[in-house]
Write a structure and sequence with these properties.
single chain, about 90 residues, mainly beta, 7 strands, about 15% helix, globular
Amino acid sequence: MVDKSFSSTSKGFQMTFSSGYTISVSFSEFSYSDQGETTAEVAVWHSKEDHWLCFEDGAWVIVPDGHSAVLGHQTPDQIASHMEIISKL
């Protein structure tokens, strides 16, 4: 069971899907983005199984233990595509 499916800040938002995967979209001055002008940073992790995913060769894969990963400079269309994929994992 997911405690909270949505959260937001002034510089981004997170969504947790029923599978337990959370996608974070950030456009702060400290993210890999143009601060939300046209791109944002994306991160994905599993809230219960304690692992991160990274996007490699067209697929989301588990990052080795102890590491995290972000996907920088993503357009709205790319982010929507990532959300669709993550929602089906």
